[in-house]
């Protein structure tokens, strides 16, 4: 039984309003959730309910979403016996009644869903990751993909690609992977400062230097990996990109990268060249979400050699992912709980991927709180891949730190990509 449900408007890491949700079960177990929020969103994501009152927070307030939680959602959930998280999530889906959760807001439903998961885990004396692990899955500590350089919508520099990440695939343990990330970040910071370049940060803590071409960043990353005493390489410290290409596609279909306008084919060729020159193992949102034919070409051409992750194009939605798989688009999916709006649908999305041998990477959003839910989800899913921004800033490192705590408590859990 759910006996109490509270929602408060708080701030996320970008200084925008988001929801804090606390749920209490009969017996006293409670669960808390802080709701993440994207800057660069896919068009089919669950809709965030925002107040639209331009005199407060530029219209971004979430007091209506909070009122929906303490009003109609609590009214629906209280005083009934719930058998599972899936039942609660189904009730939220039905109460909302829209395809994109636009009535209650995906931010409201995901907050309640996450808080419910935490409360139920607590009531059963389980760690959240233990509670979330499906019985068909072996939990695992994921390879962290640290964002070291930001561009696109996440920074105000001239870089078109949004995220340049490093992945310590060859690290012997979670703790050593985090050490590699932090040491390489520090060397990159030092190198940029020594070159007189800006060392300010983007939304997720990645550095935002005044580079313009992706090649400049990739060269700086390899130099920093070397400089920190690690080996750049596909099975050592590899590089992953999230160009977030929907953001630099122009109305006429061309992609604007640095000072060049590229066709879809030319952009695919650029990725091919970059992957030949640098140890890039994964590219997320390499093309825009509506460039379906391009995605097919990209997958045909590079899908054997590279992980191609769908974020905007899949939006963690099991149905959209099924369609993408049928269309032979990408070979992996980014997983963000707030994109679909409940934990149960997130788990379903991951199960669809697993069944079709699509890899999964659990991900943060540009706007985060100190909630470390996604670290637990990454371990529980056994997916082997995780991204939570830079190895710096509280709302990012709390997730990596949680992974190190789990690793310390459970030395039996394997670290690494696994079978994917
Ligand atoms: P977002 O960025 O939260 O702005 O969507 C993360 C990503 O694109 O992967
Ligand atoms: Zn992305």
Describe what you observe in this structure.
The chain is an alpha/beta fold. The chain is built from 13 helices and 13 strands. The protein has helices spanning 63-77, 85-96, 106-123, 128-132, 174-194, 214-227, 264-277, 292-302, 318-326, 337-340, 343-355, 373-381, 394-409, and strands at 2-11, 17-25, 30-34, 143-150, 163-168, 237-242, 255-257, 260-262, 280-284, 307-310, 332-335, 359-363, 385-387. An eight-stranded mixed beta barrel has the order 4-5-6-9-10-11-12-13, surrounded by six helices. The longest helix is centred in the middle third of the chain and has 21 residues, at 174-194. The two termini are 37 Å apart. The model has no long low-confidence stretch (mean pLDDT 98). Zinc ion (ZN) binds at residues 242, 244, 284-285, 311, 334.
Blueprint of the fold:
Elements: E1 2-11, E2 17-25, E3 30-34, H1 63-77, H2 85-96, H3 106-123, H4 128-132, E4 143-150, E5 163-168, H5 174-194, H6 214-227, E6 237-242, E7 255-257, E8 260-262, H7 264-277, E9 280-284, H8 292-302, E10 307-310, H9 318-326, E11 332-335, H10 337-340, H11 343-355, E12 359-363, H12 373-381, E13 385-387, H13 394-409
Parallel strand pairs: 4-13, 6-9, 9-10, 10-11, 11-12, 12-13
Antiparallel strand pairs: 1-2, 2-3, 4-5, 5-6, 7-8
The chain binds 2-phosphoglycolic acid and zinc ion.
